[in-house]
Each structure stands twice: as structure tokens, then as C-alpha cells.
């Protein structure tokens, strides 16, 4: 996966914005102001995605390149190493799952606002 592929995929998801709130190298994708994916723009060696806590552990056990979230809640976030071992389609599925998980956690008002976009 290339950085531009990640950007295109994330930005096509409704209500998504991209920001660099932490530093100039950390690109963060948010839905309605809540993070669902982030990466280092300069290195682009990994992505962080939100994950169901039980599934997060299962994925770490199943895939060598899925680790507890770097600088994130280890319970809710995974870091996925982008070295080609995990196919792009699987990465896109995990990104969409992260997006959906964050949308579910939004307030009713924000979910309605998102649905009306």
C-alpha cells in the first residue's frame, strides 16, 4: 500500500477529514472529529487502527505484523506494519472496521449529522 492509496480510501469514507494535530509527520484520519487511522507521512512504515479489544488480541496472535497500538491504548488500537506481508485488501478491511467502530461510538447527534451528509 502507498500513502496516497491510504489517503484516497480514508477520504472517501463519509465525514472523514485528515489532519496533522500532533506534528508535521503524523497524518490522522478522523470521522466527525474522532480518530480512526493514523500514520507517519515521512516513513509510512505502519498504520494505527482502532479495533475491537477481543479481535485486537486475535489479530496480534495470528499476524506477526500486527502489534499493540504504538503510543495508543493497547486495548483498543493495533499497529500494522506495512512491509507487504499483509495484503492491501486486508488493510482496507481493518481501516473500514476501525472507521465503523468509531462511528458506532459517536453520539446520536453526530451519527445523525453524518447520515445526513
What attributes characterize this protein structure?
Aspartate Aminotransferase, domain 1; 117 residues; 26% strand
Characterization of the model:
- The chain is of the alpha+beta class and 117 residues long.
- It is 38% helix and 26% strand.
- The protein has helices at 3-11, 53-62, 88-105, 108-115; strands at 16-19, 26-31, 34-40, 46-50, 66-68, 77-81.
- Strands 1-2-3-4-6-5 form a six-stranded antiparallel β-sheet.
- The chain starts with a helix and ends with a helix.
- The model has no long low-confidence stretch (mean pLDDT 96).
Strand order of the largest sheet: 1-2-3-4-6-5
Q: Detail the poorly predicted runs.
A: none
Task: Tell me the overall shape.
Answer: globular
Helix percentage: 25-40%
Mean pLDDT: 96
Please report the total strand number as a whole number: 6
The span between the termini is 28 Å
Calculate Rg over CA atoms: 14 Å
Q: What's the level 1 CATH class?
A: Alpha Beta
Task: Enter the CATH topology name.
Answer: Aspartate Aminotransferase, domain 1
Strand fraction equals: 25-35%
Amino acid at each position: 500500500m502507498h500513502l496516497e492509496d491510504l489517503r484516497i480510501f480514508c477520504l472517501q469514507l463519509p465525514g472523514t477529514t485528515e489532519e496533522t494535530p500532533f506534528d508535521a509527520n503524523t497524518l490522522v484520519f478522523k470521522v466527525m472529529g474522532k480518530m480512526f487511522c493514523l500514520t507517519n507521512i515521512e516513513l509510512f512504515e505502519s498504520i494505527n487502527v482502532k479495533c475491537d479489544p477481543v479481535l485486537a488480541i486475535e489479530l496480534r496472535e495470528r499476524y506477526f505484523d500486527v502489534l499493540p497500538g504504538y503510543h495508543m491504548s493497547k486495548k483498543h488500537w493495533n499497529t500494522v506494519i506495512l512491509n507487504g506481508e499483509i495484503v492491501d485488501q486486508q488493510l482496507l478491511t481493518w481501516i473500514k472496521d476501525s472507521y465503523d467502530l468509531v462511528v458506532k461510538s459517536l453520539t446520536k447527534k453526530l451519527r445523525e449529522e453524518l447520515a445526513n451528509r
